[in-house]
Structure formats: C-alpha cells, structure tokens
Design a protein that fits this description.
The complex is a heterodimer of chains A (about 325) and B (about 625). Chain A has about 325 residues and is an alpha/beta fold. Helices cover about 45% and strands about 10% of the residues of chain A. In chain A, helix 4 crosses helix 10. The longest helix of chain A is centred in the N-terminal third of the chain and has 27 residues. Helices cover about 50% and strands about 10% of the residues of chain B. Chain B is built from 25 helices and 16 strands. In chain B, strand 5, helix 12 and strand 6 form a beta-alpha-beta unit. The longest helix of chain B is centred in the N-terminal third of the chain and has 32 residues. The chains are: A alpha/beta (about 325), B alpha/beta (about 625). The structure holds iron/sulfur cluster (2 copies). The site of one iron/sulfur cluster has 13 residues of chain B, from helix 12, helix 19 and helix 22. One iron/sulfur cluster binds next to helix 12, helix 19 and helix 22 of chain B. Chain B: One of its GO terms (biological process) is generation of precursor metabolites and energy.
Chain lengths: ~325, ~625
C-alpha cells in the first residue's frame, strides 16, 4: 500500500465510526439535541476554524459530516492526503464532542480531554513569547515505561509543553510521574481521537493570537506551520488511523517522529528507531532552539515547574 | 504571497511584435518572415526519405520508387539520415568539450584561466586513478586535461566517465554493444556507416545513433561540464533576472551568445574592469551591462548570476531593441541572420571562433592563450560603439522576472542536506529526494530540455508543460533554452511555489528552492545523467525504474537529437513535442518508440499536442510508481 492509501484507509475508518456515532446519537437524542465543548467560544474549534461554520446540535453535526466527506478526495496526491488528515481530525472532534452531550464529564483524572479557552489563553502567551519553546504531542506507548517517562521528562526540562495520548498516560502513571496542566504535562485521553484536543489548542492559538479568520483554512495551515512549534512523537505500532492523524499534523506543519519503520518524508515524517533520540530529532525537525541554558542542578529545571505544588515529604 | 505573477506567452509576443515594428522601420528581416517563406516544408525532407549522400542521387522514396538507385530502401535512408543528424549533434557538443579541455590545459596561477574548483579536479583525478597526493594543482590540471583530450581519440577502451553510471546501466550498454569508445571515433564511425554502400539496416544504424549519443552525453558534454566547473567554479544557487528587460537603456549592453564559457567568462571579467567602466563613462554610459542569450547565457548565469536576456528565438530581439552595442558569439545556434540584422542597427556582430564564421560580422579571433587581450578588445569595441547608438530606435521591453539558478548536482545535494535530520540521516546523498518520491509527496521528476522551434509557439510548450507538471507535484529540472523559457516566465522565482501542488509546494518551502531547477546549459544535461545515476544508486533501483522522464517539447537542433539519444540510452523515457524526421520509415519509428526498449529499457514518445504530451509524461511516471508499488 502506498503511504497515501494508508492515510485514506485510516480516514475511512474514522469516518465510518463517526457516521455511526452521530446516527446513534440522533436516534437516541433527536437531531435538535445541543452539542458543545465546555468553556469555549469557538464551537467545535477545529471544524469552525477550517470551515467558518459553528455547529450547535446533532442535526448540524450530521450536515457538517457531509462537508467533511467532501474533503475526502482520493487522488494519489499530497493535497488529498493532507485533506484526509484534516478530515480525520474533524471526525475525531465530532466523536469527542458527542462524549460531552448533556454536560457529561467524560474524562477523569489524570486525563483532561477538551481544554477550555482559559487554558489556551494562559498557555498562549508563553508560546508566543517563546517561553514555551514547543509543544510535544506524544501518542501511544513507548517501548518501555522508563523510556516513555524519560522522554516526557526531557521535554519538560526544556520547558516544552507536553500532551499525552494513549498508552504513554498509563506509563506515566505506572512510574508515578506527576502530570497536570500546572507542570505542563497534560494527559488528554486514552482513545486516539482525544489527540484532537491537542490540535484544538494549536488551532485556537491561531484564531486567538494569529487573528486567523474562521474558514480561512489555507491561512490557518500557514499560521500553524510557521508559528505553532508543535510536533508529534508517535510510538510503534502505527495503525492506519494514527497515520491518518499524522497526515493531519503534517498538513498543519507539525513533523511526526516515529520509531516504526515506515515511509519517510524529510522534515515531516521521520523514522527514529532510538527513542532516547526522539527529543533531539524532534527539536531539529521543528527547528526548535532551546533558549534556557542548562543549569547544572540535580533536578529538572524549567518554567514547566513554576506551577508545581511542593508537597511535604 | 506578495504580488507574484508569471509573465505570459502573450506578453512575450506583444514585446516581440513591438520590436518587429522597429525592425520594419529599418528594413530588418526576421525569422518570423523566413518561416513563412519556407512554408510548407518539403515532405520528403520532413519524413527523412530523401537521400543525397552520393552523386547518383539525390534519391527520394515514393510508393512508385521504393528504392534509391543503389537499392537502399526507405528504412535504410531514414536510418542513415537519423544517424547523421545524431553525429552532427554529438560532434558539436564534443568539440565544445574538447575546447574546454584545451583551455584547461592552459591554466596557470597567473594565466587567463585558473583552477577555481580544485576539489572537483581532485575528485575527478581520483576517479580516473590519478595520484593526487603532493601534486601541484596546476600540474594535476594539465595531466587531467591531457587524459581528457585522449578520451577523444584513444585507440582502445571505452569512455572513462561511463563508470559513473550504475552497474546495471553499464551492463546494458555492454550487452547492447553501445558503450562509446573514443568520442570522435563514434562520430567517424557514424559517418562511415552512413556512406553509400555501408549500413542500411535500421537496427545497426539506430544502435550506432545511441552509441554516438552516449559518446556525447557521457563523453564530450560531460568533459565540457566537469572541466568548466573546475575552471569557472561549480555552480551554487544564486539570484539573477531574465528576459529582455535586463538590458539597460543607459548602459553599454554587451550580449554574449553561443556556448563556450571560456569566452563569456572572460568578457564578464573585462566588463568589470575599472578601466573599461571608466571608458564607458567617458562615452556617456553609466556602465557596462552584460547579458546572455542561449547556452552561454546559462553558463554565466549559473556561475555569476549574469542576467539572461533570452533564448534561441529571442536572439534577433536583442538586436531589435536598438540598445545592443555588441552581440558577441562563439559557436552553435547563432543565426547567420544576425549579420545582416546588425547592419540595420549600430550593433556590432562579433564572431570569435574559426568554427563559426559568418558574413557581415566582425571577426575577433579568440583563443585561450590570448583570451585576456581578445576579451578586452571585444569589450572596448562594444563600449566605443555606444556613441553610435540611434536613440530613436531604442526600445527595451520592460519585462523581466527574478530567477534563482545554479543547481548543479553538487548544489542539489547540498540543498537536500538542509532537510536531513542529523539524528537519523547521512548527508551528501540524494536520499531526501528519493524519500519525497517514494512517499508520494513528489510524484516524480521531469528533465525538460531543448530549444525553441517555430513549429511550436515559442516557449508556450515549455511553460505550459512546466505549469502542468508542477501542479501535479512533479519536480522539473531544466537546461538550455527550456531553462530560459522558465526563467523569463518567472517559474524560477521561489514564489512560483504557489503554482505547485501541495507536495511540491511543501518541498519548495522546506528546501527553499524554486519549483523548477536550473541545471545549466545543454552540455550540462550530463549533470542530469549524473543525478539520475546517483538517484538510482542511492535508491537501489535501476534508472529505468525511477519515476523520471525527459522531455524536449520545442527541440530543433542536431544536438537535441544527440541528447535525446543519450538520455534514452541512459534508461530515461524521452518525450518529444516536435517530430524527428523519421516518419517515412515504420521500422525506424518502431525502433525509436519501442524496439530500443529491449536494449536500454527506455524509448521515445512523440506527441505534437503539447497538453497530451504532458498527460503522457504524467501517465508514464504513474506507471513507474505503480510498478514499484509506491
Ligand atoms: S546512396 Fe543510394 S539512395 Fe542515397 S543518393 Fe546514393 S544512390 Fe541514392
Ligand atoms: S537549447 Fe537548443 S537552441 Fe538553445 S542553445 Fe541549446 S541547442 Fe541551441
């Protein structure tokens, strides 16, 4: 299979799931049932940013899925793969928003799920000033929990904002590694669709700080590519859905670094077998230069720890 | 995005028409009129079925007269004509290469010519098994020059540069018995074979056509390119401008036209000489402006950023501006029409080579030993001619575009190094490009080359095809007049990335390159052969498996046929927008478009509908991808 075929099939899978999830929801609640994420003025932020349309209820969500379908062209071209990646992210956002129906609280500690606008505003300023030099999205389970935690820690020590999706969250827990927005290591969720909450952060940053007009998809992608220093670390094994999400990330300008032997694309899809080198590989791929000089102290030192609560004992 | 806009072929034509008005005022002739006089062309010649190689003829083949007097049938006649056509092109490039080797033999630390890229010289020396340790670089240059000159007439063995090809290609050549021996020998053999009463079997004639082409691409042209780099520097990316608007009204305009950089490089040097600039000022000009036409323009653009005034069918336009003090030429693709045309203006038409002597020109003989004085005299002649300008005739069309040029193989590899990741990749290879192609980000590559030909609306085929290819995520490498068409249109401006598909656009952004890469002059198509070889070696594929094709949409010269033959013989399918004069023989057509595939894994495709030609290239590229499962 070509790389693009993998993307397309991952996109098809997610689309299928989304379609039935929306139908089920309509059957259960009716088309007028309101859908929304908590604490955001941007409706479904990804869909809103890409199309300029707000979605208020299940009926509109179903219509929106029709729009998403139009992005799913199937030529063997990067543009088609990019759009499929975007479509995958939008489907993920739809699946995720369904979890919030009726004010449900679908995520519980340590996972955050959707991040409200106040969190983005709070993180946005240091992102713009470079105090947060990058955003890492870590996806899947590292070969060992130790390696996974070491990677998280290495980013944290550089002041990089870390978001976690899937197995890596359990690995941190198992190692007793402290996570949370206050230390800038944010577990999002264990389903792969929760990765969209990281995308949502980048996209709202573009809307809020980049003054990108909702619906200006090209401007949005240019902004995220040039201004949002995010990157993805995706651990093997990669299934088609993850690859499709990866295409979405690359479309936004975020390189994907993986330890799975797969197709390679310079600066965009990089195979790094040695997880201990993920950090250096990722920073170089995203052209992130760490401003903080390494201070030789025995504990990790960076602005990420500013919000840490020191407990006794 | 700014306000980037391509210059259209319509704008080119409007500019030309305005210049032809000036021409009409002074009674100038132009190719546009001569084409009319020659139309319709003789059908026998067009089909290649006319033979005049002995004085029993001329003979021509018709249904009623199926054989010439000697009994040669149409296939033999067409085949012989094709081989002679090839031999002409091969001889032309190869003699250019030989001149360069001779020039290399004159290099001296305080001489006219120096070694500017010693590393490249040492690399070639090592490749040729020459001891370099502790050797003075100039002694080494002389030694290599002599060895290179022997490549032209060595009694035994095959071309040294063939070793640069992937092993599989070398095996194919050996098996098909088309490995070129001495460069000149292949031309001589071609002429021998095509004599009355020698070869009339199409298969033998086409085989020799390929071998004669290979002696050019992997012999003469490669010598020309490699040793030009040694003496004048290996091109690196740099910015320049293109189209007639690069001529400057208040400057002395010197146009260099032709092929051999030994002349143009020296002219450029003297145009920067303070003494000459002072002289220019004394005659009322602001300074000296050198611009180029045809391949010599590509050479000085690639190495010095000298602006490119125009390509083949623009050469008369340069004079028609009324602002050309001198058009200085050496060899190849120079319209003899420039003589009479320059007489209608104050322009001096300066010929410099005993190889290309023309009526109505001023002949200032140029040679390597006296290059400095010759060039100075030429520049002085041009500058002194400024005062003879007729201001009422001056009109320079204000069309020009920015262009980034200078993509030698070395520069391409360096550019690719910039997108590697030091944690995982090695540098100094073509692997990043291969990764872009295997992943599908780029669908493939097209090498677009060749001339203008009045049979095709000038430049339109080049530009339309390039636009189509880049929109389809196919990267285009260019040389010759094709490259200039691109530059004049604006396709070499980095902002032209906006016209690309998402894949190529992303590549252009990350690598900071324009979507079409200028690889140089016609002899520099040898660079493309090296690039194809490197891609094959770095990917572990055969050249013929790579999603890579060649294209000459507006070709006209014998050189173009020689080039086509070596490109095909290197395993690269080649697409032509102008029919070669072979249509009279089904057997020769069959061989060229299909049969030779058995020998070299590639063949020609001819299609005069340019849009279809583009579709066919894309289709072939996709077929190659499908065969690889990528
Ligand atoms: S070689 Fe044969 S075909 Fe050609 S001109 Fe002589 S007699 Fe005629
Ligand atoms: S491309 Fe053709 S016309 Fe132009 S310089 Fe080369 S051979 Fe001559």
């Amino acid at each position: 299979m070509t790389l693009f075929d993998v993307v397309f099939s991952g996109n098809d899978t997610v689309y299928g799931l989304t379609e039935s999830a929306i139908s089920d929801a309509i059957a259960k609640y009716g088309a007028d049932k309101a859908v929304a994420f908590p604490d955001t003025a941007y409706s479904l932020p990804c869909y809103y940013a890409v199309t300029g349309t707000k979605v208020g209820n299940l009926g509109e969500l179903k219509e929106a899925l029709g729009v998403v379908k139009t992005l799913m062209t199937r030529e063997q071209k990067l543009n088609d793969a990019f759009m499929s990646g975007v479509a995958t992210a939008l489907c993920a956002e739809f699946i995720e928003v369904l979890k919030y129906i009726d004010g449900a609280v679908p995520y519980e500690a340590p996972c955050y799920g959707h991040l409200g606008d106040p969190v983005i505003r709070e993180l946005g300023v240091p992102l713009v000033t470079g105090d947060i030099p990058g955003v890492a999205v870590i996806l899947g389970a590292a070969p060992t929990a130790e390696e996974g935690v070491a990677l998280v820690k290495s980013y944290q020590a550089q002041g990089i904002l870390v978001t976690l999706v899937g197995g890596i969250i359990d690995q941190c827990e198992a190692q007793g590694y402290k996570t949370g927005a206050n230390v800038r290591v944010i577990p999002l969720g264990k389903d792969v669709t929760s990765v969209v909450h990281a995308v949502s952060v980048a996209i709202r940053a573009a809307l809020i700080f980049g003054n990108i007009q909702p619906g200006d998809a090209a401007g949005l992608m240019e902004y995220t590519m040039k201004r949002v220093p995010a990157f993805v670390n995706a651990f093997a094994p990669l299934d088609a859905v993850i690859v499709a999400c990866g295409a979405g990330a690359i479309a936004l300008g975020f390189p994907v670094i993986t330890n799975e032997e797969t197709f390679k694309v310079p600066k965009s899809l990089i195979v790094q077998k040695d997880v201990s080198k993920f950090n250096a590989t990722s920073l170089e791929a995203r052209d992130i230069k760490i401003k903080i000089t390494n201070i030789d102290i025995p504990v990790a030192f960076a602005s990420a720890f500013e919000g840490e609560i020191i407990r006794r004992g | 995005m700014g306000n980037f806009k391509l210059t259209s072929v319509e704008e080119f034509e409007a500019a030309t028409n305005r210049l032809l008005e000036t021409g009409a005022k002074v009674g100038a002739d132009a190719w546009q009129f001569r084409v009319k006089n020659q139309t319709p062309h003789c059908k026998f010649g067009e089909q290649g079925v006319c033979c005049r190689i002995c004085s029993m003829g001329p003979c021509r083949i018709t249904p009623k007269a199926p054989r010439g007097i000697c009994g040669c049938d149409v296939h033999g006649i067409v085949g012989r004509n094709f081989l002679r056509f090839t031999a002409g092109g091969s001889a032309t490039h190869s003699d250019h290469g030989r001149e360069i080797c001779h020039t290399l033999h004159t290099v001296a630390p305080d001489g006219n010519y120096k070694v500017k890229d010693p590393d490249k010289l040492i690399r070639i020396a090592k490749e040729w098994g020459v001891e370099t340790e502790g050797k003075n670089i100039y002694d080494l240059a002389h030694e290599i020059a002599e060895m290179a000159l022997l490549e032209y007439g060595k009694p035994f063995g095959t071309q040294r540069f063939l070793k640069r090809a992937p092993e599989h290609t070398q095996e194919l050549w050996a098996k098909a018995e088309i490995e070129p021996r001495a460069i000149d020998r292949e031309v001589a053999t071609a002429l021998h074979m095509t004599h009355m009463g020698c070869s009339s079997k199409p298969e033998a004639l086409i085989r020799q056509s390929l071998r004669c082409g290979l002696s050019d691409g992997w012999g003469g042209s490669m010598c020309g390119t490699e040793f030009s780099d040694v003496m004048f520097g290996t091109p690196k990316p740099l910015d320049t401008e293109a189209n007639l608007g690069v001529m400057k009204e208040d400057y002395v305009n010197i146009i260099v036209h032709g092929h051999d950089p030994s002349l143009s490089e020296m002219i450029c040097d003297y145009a920067e000489d303070p003494e000459m600039i002072a002289l220019a000022k004394s005659v009322g000009a602001k300074g000296i402006n050198v611009a180029g036409v045809c391949c010599t323009s590509n050479e000085v653009a690639m190495r010095r950023g000298i602006p490119m005034a125009g390509n083949f069918l623009q050469q008369e336009n340069v004079v028609l501006t009324g602002a050309c003090e001198a058009i200085v030429v050496d060899v190849q693709c120079i319209f003899p029409a420039l003589g009479p045309l320059s007489k209608c203006f104050h322009t001096k038409f300066i010929t410099t080579s005993p190889i290309a002597q023309m009526p109505d020109s001023e002949f200032i003989r140029f040679n390597a030993e006296t290059a400095g004085e010759n060039a100075k005299l030429i520049v002085r002649t041009a500058v002194e001619n400024f005062k003879n300008r007729k201001p009422e005739l001056v009109h320079i069309p204000q069309l020009k575009q920015k262009a980034t040029v200078g993509y030698s193989v070395e520069a391409i590899v360096k550019t690719l190094d910039k997108v590697t990741n030091s944690q995982v990749d090695v540098t100094g290879t073509t692997k990043p490009l291969i990764e872009c192609i295997t992943s599908g980000v780029l669908r493939g590559a097209v090498a677009m080359v060749g001339c203008n030909n009045p049979r095709v609306r000038p430049d339109s085929a080049h530009i339309d095809l390039m636009k189509k290819l880049i929109a389809n995520d196919i990267i285009v490498v260019l040389s010759g007049c094709s490259a200039q068409a691109a530059a004049r249109a604006g396709l070499m401006d980095k902002e032209a990335r906006e016209l690309c598909g998402a894949g190529l656009k992303r590549v252009c952004e990350l690598a900071d390159i324009p979507p079409v890469l200028h690889m140089g002059s016609c002899v520099d198509i040898s660079r493309m052969m090296i690039l194809a070889s490197e891609l094959a070696k770095d990917s572990g594929l055969n050249i013929s498996q790579l999603p890579l094709v060649g294209c000459a949409p507006e070709w006209m010269s014998e050189k173009a046929v020689s080039i086509g033959n070596y490109v095909v013989a290197t395993g690269i399918d080649t697409f032509l927008g102008v029919e070669p004069q072979v249509t009279g023989s089904s057997e020769v057509v069959g061989l060229l478009t299909d049969g030779i595939r058995d020998w070299v894994e590639a063949a020609y495709t001819v299609e005069k509908d340019i849009d279809k030609l583009g579709d066919l290239m894309i289709q072939r590229i996709e077929e190659k991808r499908a065969a690889l499962g990528i």
